[in-house]
Amino acid sequence: EESPPVFSRFFFILFAVLSILEARLQRVVPRFNLSILLQAPKGHYVELNLTMESSYLTPCIDDEYIEVRDGYNKSANLLGVFCGGNSSVVMRSSGQNLWIRKSVHYISRFRGSYANKTLNFTVEPNLDKVAGTQFVLFNQTSSLWCPAQGAPAPFIVWRKNGRVVQNSTSVKYQLIITEENTDKYSCEVNGQDDVDKKEIRFVTE
């Protein structure tokens, strides 16, 4: 039986070396009080692996949460809010900065590691975790959520009755329902070959 060509062996070895280097480049998120900024070199984005461990049976009890934003402070686009229970998530920035903040009441265990990924390393965006039915409060500021996945963080296009009302990496769209209406909302992300779109129906409480 003939041995594999030299170039095949070369790429196999190169892949193995890169995998080892990738594992070693994982950094532990340092301890912090309320917030921390993670940064990557130019031409890279931040990939965060986050694990929360809580003994609470009720999620978000006592305003206990962690928020992750696509930028360098609290005004940056929101990538996710996580609270209560036990969960592990992967979050990615669109550029060099990823900002993490803990609520004042946060007491659960938090573990995280992160790595710098080149912008050439991509993950096809999808909306698999978007809820088709969501709840809003009458006559109060409420939010619809579109937790898009992908790398780098994908831009999310929000539509109201087919018209674009927001285009950013934020997974949250805020609205106020003051009367009964039949407005139709959706969010979408652009993939390499097509658009992934999710219709969102809201229920007023």
TrEMBL record:
Coiled coil: none
Pfam families from the UniProt entry: CUB, Ig_2
Keywords: Disulfide bond, Signal
SUPFAM superfamilies: Immunoglobulin (SSF48726), Spermadhesin, CUB domain (SSF49854)
Domain Ig-like: 125-204
Source domain of life: Eukaryota
Signal peptide: 1-23
Name of the protein this chain belongs to: Ig-like domain-containing protein
InterPro entries reported in the protein's UniProt record: CUB_dom, Ig-like_dom, Ig-like_dom_sf, Ig-like_fold, Sperma_CUB_dom_sf
